[in-house]
Amino acid sequence: MSSEHPGNGAGSADDSPFRREDESRDSAPQYVLPLVVRIERAEPPARTDALETAARAVLEILGDERSDGDGEWARAMRDWQDARIRKVVRRARGAEWRKACALPGITVTGKAAEVRVFPPVPLDGWPKELAKLQVSGTDLDDPAPPDPAALGEPVLWMSPEVEMSAGKAMAQAGHGAQLAWWELSGEQRAAWRAAGYPLAVRTAAPAGWGALTGSGLPVVRDAGFTEIAPGSCTVVADHPALPASRRT
């Protein structure tokens, strides 16, 4: 994944690990952030619920004390963020889900969705309990169009032009949440954390997508490893604390 930011391309927070130079990011050891979504056959979650829960899961691990300073996950989190911030979403049910939950990580729940996020691992170093889980099969639907986002709520605007599986879209929503996090000050991050990381994931109106991608808000541009063409704009992260914040 690559991204765009307002200003000079780095997050406004002093401790942002974002590197603009693609060459340096590609030469760093590559890690991936594993996310596992629970999809039981009888009661799969709604698509938007899953996307929002995955985005909040990414924020939860970014803001966790174990990811900071000398915390047990801090080194892996730094190494992961110094390279390309890859995320992979896999699915689990039944015993697979219970085994995944036994590994160190954080489980985040939405309206009905459950997503567990784990500390980053090397691309070829997945725990066996996660390595055997399937990436495919995360096609989810919304039973009805989601309500408009609440006034003042952070919104991750999904592209109306790019079709993605639910698993891919969950990873992209996570990227968008992370870019917004990088742009915020420590005080703004703390306020978001204290509120429980409220956010909405919505598909932008086609007529407003061009204005959003050019607004100065953080934009996710996919690296093209799976499903979609390299450089595709997939998400615009719209947090009310960002100076270019707008609604479409």
- Provide the residue-averaged pLDDT: 87
User: Tally of extended strands?
Assistant: 10
The helix content, as a percent range, equals 25-40%
CATH architecture assignment name? 3-Layer(aba) Sandwich
Going by helix content, strand content and strand pairing, the class is alpha+beta
Please state the CA-atom Rg, rounded to the nearest Å: 17 Å
Shape call: globular
> Regarding quaternary structure, how should these chains be classified?
single chain
How far apart are the first and last residues' alpha carbons, in Å?
A: 24 Å
What is the CATH H-level superfamily? Bit1
Please, how many helices? Answer: 8
CATH fold descriptor: Bit1
* Widest sheet, order of strands: 1-9-10-7-8
Major β-sheet profile: 5 strands, mixed
Q: Please tell me the total number of domains.
A: 1
Low-confidence stretches: 2-21
Residue fraction in strands? 15-25%
What's the SSE pattern? Answer: EHEHHEHEEEHEHHEHEE
Q: Give the C-level CATH assignment.
A: Alpha Beta
InterPro entries: Pep_tRNA_hydro_II_dom_sf (IPR023476)
Biased composition (Basic and acidic residues): 16-26
Keywords: Hydrolase
Organism: Streptomyces genisteinicus
Account of the 3D structure:
The chain is an alpha+beta fold and 248 residues long. It has a single domain (16-128, 149-238), classed as 3-Layer(aba) Sandwich (Bit1), CATH 3.40.1490. Helices cover 32% and strands 18% of the residues. The protein has helices at 22-27, 47-63, 74-82, 94-101, 128-131, 166-183, 186-194, 206-213; strands spanning 2-4, 31-38, 86-92, 106-109, 114-117, 121-122, 155-158, 200-203, 219-221, 233-238. A hairpin with a 4-residue loop joins strand 4 (106-109) and strand 5 (114-117). Helix 2 runs parallel beside helix 6 (166-183). Residues 2-21 have low confidence and may be disordered. GO terms for molecular function: hydrolase activity. This is Peptidyl-tRNA hydrolase. Residues 16-26 have a biased composition (Basic and acidic residues). InterPro entries: Pep_tRNA_hydro_II_dom_sf.
